[in-house]
Write a structure and sequence with these properties.
This protein has 411 residues and is α/β, with parallel strands linked by helices. It is built from 15 helices and 19 strands. The protein has two domains: 8-247 and 371-407, Alkaline Phosphatase, subunit A, CATH 3.40.720.10; 259-369, Gyrase A, domain 2. The strands form six sheets. It has a seven-stranded mixed beta sheet, with helices on both faces. The chain has a four-stranded antiparallel beta sheet with strand order 13-14-16-15.
Length: 411
């Protein structure tokens, strides 16, 4: 392992150098109940032992509880108000266009991964979907590739080549459990062959969108994860596990999607085209959720804001409607990248634009999604005891590197 002479300072936080290879895992969509059910079913023995030999905590993710803002919070150690990534998708006001927020040009803070690599550490990043690769690997002199496009990794572009051959698995379909299994298998093989000082593994929530906690398919996923984590543990790695967000059923009593089409309602209330609804959950992978989540932003002229807010607050299934300043302060968001209004739905409800803009034909099971306050609780698990923690400290998923590097005791 390379020697890092000093602790790394990044975004106002200090991180001690790894004393052992450290692996941080973000399990996409991992509602804590998934782990509880897998442990109770007896399929996750390694996780079950963490209560005795490690540390098991619950933290909060950032809101909106979507993939991009939370993964970037985790690898920068700060909320979206600092790093700037507040959704998967947003309205670029300067360009007047709705765009994906997966270009590193939108990132306003360095990642601790890049800083550790610059300080002499060997760093590896494996993400399931390619949408995160450029953001997670921004400025990183190390290994960084996605399972989705593992065959395209080269020494120049990813710090590694012949990845499928190394992992011993074919490149999996993007809509599959195998995509996350590839991430874990790659993490194990990298530890066996490259032994990074710091590894970040980020999975996909394919199974969590399809299956509730305790479902046989969900338990099988966590059994697979458990086996790979046990192998990393056996190689002496410090392991820290969290999630980018939880997951909830978004249906009525009959199992039908419970959707509020905000653009349609605001067009009916204010006039067509006066307000503009943005859905930050939108990304290239919408088959399993139809671009429906529990967080939306609304742009409207000042004279129409009061009426729009009143209409939105009247809708059954809306948990809160906040103006830009209030939402930015409460959820630590960059005010220039959210709408005039922020709308958050309750735990059973998702938000859309117009019915004809959402293709739900790919849903083969009742809709499960995320984005709101109800998906904010996430696990914080460690295979080491933690010391020096303030018992009154509010724990966030983006504290995971701090906890693993600054508070984990030796084995």
């Amino acid at each position: 392992m390379n020697t890092i002479d000093e602790a790394v300072q990044v975004n106002g936080r200090r991180y001690a150098r790894p004393r052992a290879p450290t692996v941080v895992v973000c399990v996409d969509g991992c509602e804590p109940d998934y782990l509880t059910h897998a442990i109770q079913a007896g399929v996750a023995p390694w996780l079950a032992r963490l209560h005795e030999r490690g540390t098991s905590l619950i933290g909060e993710c950032v809101v909106p509880s979507f993939t991009n803002p939370n993964n970037l919070s985790i690898v920068t150690g700060v909320p979206p108000s600092v790093h700037g990534i507040c959704g998967n998708y947003f309205l670029d006001a300067a360009r007047g266009e709705e765009v994906m927020m997966n270009d590193p040009a939108y990132l306003r803070a360095p990642t601790l991964l890049a800083r550790f690599a610059a300080s002499g550490a060997r760093v590896a990043v494996v993400t399931a979907k390619d949408k995160l690769r450029a953001l997670l690997g921004h400025g990183l002199d190390g290994i960084c590739f996605s399972a989705e496009k593992a065959a395209e990794a080269t020494l120049d572009s990813a710090g590694i080549d012949r990845v499928p051959e190394l992992v011993g698995l074919p490149v999996p379909p993007v809509y599959s459990v195998a995509l996350s299994a590839f991430v874990f298998a790659a993490g194990v093989r990298l530890m066996e062959t490259h032994r990074p000082d710091l590894t970040y593994l980020s999975t996909t929530d394919y199974i969590q969108h399809k299956c509730a906690p305790g479902a046989p398919e969900a338990n099988a996923f966590y059994a697979m994860m458990d086996r790979h984590l046990a192998r990393l543990d056996a190689m002496g790695a410090v392991i820290a596990l969290t999630a980018d967000h939880g997951m909830s059923a978004k249906t009525d009593a009959a199992g039908r999607p419970r959707v509020l089409f905000l653009q349609q309602m605001l067009d009916d209330t204010l006039g067509v085209g006066l307000a503009r609804v943005i859905l930050p959950i939108t990304d290239p992978y919408v088959v399993h959720h139809g671009a429906l989540g529990s967080f939306a932003t609304v742009y409207a002229p000042p004279a129409a804001l009061a009426r729009a807010s009143e209409r939105l607050r009247s809708l059954p299934g809306v948990e809160c409607v906040l103006d830009r300043e209030t939402a930015a302060e409460r959820f630590e968001l960059p005010p220039d990248r959210i709408g005039d209004l922020v709308v958050i739905a309750d735990h059973l409800t998702v938000l859309g634009t117009r019915a004809d803009r959402h293709d739900l034909s790919g849903l083969t099971v009742p809709l499960r999604s995320h984005g709101g306050l109800s998906e904010q609780l996430v696990p914080l698990l460690f295979n080491r005891r933690l010391s020096g923690l303030d018992p009154d400290r509010r724990l966030r998923n983006f504290d995971v590197f701090d906890l693993a590097l600054n508070h984990a005791q030796p084995a």
